[in-house]
């Protein structure tokens, strides 16, 4: 930039004694770039038209043209050029006369933000040379014809990602002539998992197609005995989603110069996707009341949430863990960072990372809800993002846990990660960020502790296997489930597991040893608990089974407590209490049935239709206590989706959504949502009520845009019934 340009800027800048220029964290703001940058006095006879002049720049930016095809960006619903870093792309420049290399001199300039600086990577001048070096900025002429030249441009494999402005500068004896500001030549540069020099390089094509290019996914929920799944539309290629994702980094005030680093981007995004402490994207709500907002279970995908936030700049209400994780996954895939959504069943929400969840029992052996502060989530969703970790020792790159659900603060903000999955598995929790917290989520033990009258604590039972007993994600290339528990931990009871635990404790994870507390387990009697499959609105039965392995007769005073819980394991209300005395004959099994009636639970049922049962039994002869707890999900009926007529791109067709009310009551305030990435934008329809046993039918006309295999996703939401989903795979034919 010339002297005159910089003095103008100085007049505008607010004086600040600490830095010469203000912080530069807006991708949207621009500086004014002079079209004529004079070297000094300009002679009177100077006419810019006498010199080489740019008439037009052609970006090859249509989805079917070479750039978007080679860079795997043809699916983005965005008219501008989108390329991935570290890989060559082409542009054509038309001049007013043939280009003469011996006398003409021109170069390209890519700029970002309001204060472009070369050393910050926000001002990139590119001189035309002879060879392109892999992973470094450069350009060379690959074709010349008449007044046109075609350039191949290589971007750096570490360059910052975002939207750059492009100028072509021509050198004349008296100054630099530049092209006018033209937003049609703006170029988005994204991460490149196809480039070996990129920090997010992933070497398997099938995995890249799944973790970067797939715009729908599966959320696994329910509980470990009853895994349920639903589809989620990520929609990372939909209109304006890329701009919304770049805006999130502006909102998080991430310096432009830091935006080439996936570690930094993940860390700031995990904070800005929740609204705690920074007015971020989604406001969480776990209390079953969703006034002035959308119930978390009603969302079918991320696009509505991101676009609403991008336009209103206010947190979108409401989300729970899978909503935070779904939106985070969209953000990561949109920018080109490979990402997947993970579900951890029986997830410990441990308030002080001591690997111990305490459930306190009173004198009789019932759980004391006032003293018990820890909670076990039926499931918890987070994300994994794929990247190298040059900030850690060798071997800790690959999948990293990132979590945008606000649970605990990290460095003063609600955020979590990136934490290396490999480091968590081996107990190396000293490596940043937030590894001890994630380690506790998958490795805690449950202690059943009885408080004596004099204040001493007696540990009655320890459950070492329940927490984190199943960790899953969607399979590559299909809708099935993959068990990835072994990525996070060694087999329960193996030597490696013991070693990983000792390592974690050495690095500061607190673990109280059993020696601190008096604990003699009851070994000669086992207690188990089973429930038959329960359908919403019906009665069902549960069975308690004792196995007496000793030669003695025992009697067991048994307490049964049924609770309606949030999926976070927090109790809303105890709806069933039952106690009985069980006679246990020597060397035999006995079972006891308890019937749960729908009238007992329907009035207070929460949206995920989830129960939590505690059974505690005291063996009267020995005073020992047995304890078992189990979560149960009710079966919620699904929406039925079918299509009518043939499915051809560009031709109108219709889809029908049906639902039959299974409850013994009328459903009030019913809302249906339907969406399908690449098929149709989210459509909402409100129905006043659905009487019991009656069927609602909704027909929607739409015109599919693109051929290929697509997915329709629908949800139903009402006052009494939520978490009702349906989906349908559809094959759209070419016209």
From TrEMBL:
Which keywords does the record carry? Acetylation, Acyltransferase, Blood coagulation, Calcium, Cytoplasm, Hemostasis, Metal-binding, Secreted, Transferase, Zymogen
Required co-factor? Ca(2+)
Q: Which organism is it from?
A: Peucedramus taeniatus (Olive warbler)
Q: Where does Ca(2+) bind?
A: 443, 445, 492, 497
Under Pfam families, the record lists: Transglut_C (PF00927), Transglut_core (PF01841), Transglut_N (PF00868)
Mind telling me which SUPFAM superfamilies this protein's record contains? Answer: Cysteine proteinases, E set domains, Transglutaminase, two C-terminal domains
- Subunit structure comment from the entry: Tetramer of two A chains (F13A1) and two B (F13B) chains.
Any one GO BP annotation for this protein = blood coagulation, fibrin clot formation
Q: Residue ranges of the Transglutaminase-like domain?
A: 313-406
> What PROSITE patterns does the record point to?
TRANSGLUTAMINASES
Question: What PANTHER family is this protein classified in?
Answer: COAGULATION FACTOR XIII A CHAIN, PROTEIN-GLUTAMINE GAMMA-GLUTAMYLTRANSFERASE
Q: Known catalysed reaction(s)? A: L-glutaminyl-[protein] + L-lysyl-[protein] = [protein]-L-lysyl-N(6)-5-L-glutamyl-[protein] + NH4(+)
Protein name as annotated:
Coagulation factor XIII A chain
Broad class of the protein's primary localization: cytoplasm
Lineage, uppermost ranks:
Eukaryota, Metazoa, Chordata, Craniata, Vertebrata
Keyword Calcium on entry: yes
Family according to the record = Belongs to the transglutaminase superfamily. Transglutaminase family.
- In short, the EC number is 2.3.2.13
Which stretches does the entry tag as region Disordered? 1-26
Q: What does this protein do?
A: Factor XIII is activated by thrombin and calcium ion to a transglutaminase that catalyzes the formation of gamma-glutamyl-epsilon-lysine cross-links between fibrin chains, thus stabilizing the fibrin clot. Also cross-link alpha-2-plasmin inhibitor, or fibronectin, to the alpha chains of fibrin.
What GO CC annotations are associated with the protein?
Answer: cytoplasm; extracellular region
Cofactor, free-text remark: Binds 1 Ca(2+) ion per subunit.
Q: Please give the superkingdom of this protein's source.
A: Eukaryota
Q: Where in the cell is it found?
A: Cytoplasm; Secreted
In this protein, the active site sits at: 321, 380, 403
